[in-house]
Amino acid sequence: MTPLFSVEGLAGLVFFGFILLIIGGALVATHAANLIRAVTGLAVAFIGVAGIYYFLNSPFLALMQILIYAGAICVALVFAVMLAEPIAIKKFQRRHPLAGPGAFAAAGLLAWGLAALAYKTTWPAPPTRVNAGELEEVGRAMMTTFVVGFELISLVLLVAIIGSLVLARNGRSRK
Question: Which residue from 18, 77, 113, 146 has the least number of CB within 10 angstroms?
Answer without folding.
Answer: 113
